[in-house]
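> call design_seq(struct)
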């Protein structure tokens, strides 16, 4: 019998690197699965609608380039990322959205399923300050149609996130 890789074991068990990281950390979380509609114009809004959760509590994971270094921003799907605020939050001068293919290769996730948790290469992370106003928030669990709900404090702790106002309406 052939030995399975870690990724094959996770897939066989229905887990993703994000859910495996959560389980290993021993934090409380809830997995929410829904049927992904490829024609939906917004991954995050689709997740909020499918789960019946306010868009202010569902956070999207965006990868940006800050002065040549990839950086993760976790902001509500109800708003947008403020690139100037992101750069300032990590002591940088300029930020731009990263090339999607580079973001996928670096994190190990596909666009629309990038999780701030369990990334192939751990990147500096900034969590929007609005997360603190919620008991729990939802973020991608590592694939389209799969979200995890957890406390903002646990999310920040597990990603070593800087908390800063990087989202805007």
């Amino acid at each position: 019998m052939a030995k399975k890789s870690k990724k094959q074991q996770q897939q066989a068990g229905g887990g993703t690197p994000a859910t495996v990281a959560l389980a290993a950390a021993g934090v409380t979380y809830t997995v929410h699965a829904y049927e992904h509609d490829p024609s939906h114009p917004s991954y995050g809004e689709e997740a909020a609608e499918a789960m019946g959760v306010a868009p202010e509590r569902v956070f999207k994971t965006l990868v940006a380039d800050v002065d040549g270094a990839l950086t993760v921003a976790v902001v509500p799907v109800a708003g947008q990322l403020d690139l100037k605020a992101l750069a300032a939050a990590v002591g940088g001068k300029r930020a731009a959205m990263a090339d999607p293919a580079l973001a996928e290769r670096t994190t190990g996730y596909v666009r629309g399923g990038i999780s701030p948790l369990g990334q192939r290469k751990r990147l500096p992370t900034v969590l929007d300050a609005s997360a603190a106003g919620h008991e729990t928030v939802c973020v991608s669990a590592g694939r389209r149609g799969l979200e995890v709900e957890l406390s903002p404090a646990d999310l920040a702790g597990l990603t070593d996130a800087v908390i800063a106002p990087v989202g805007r309406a």
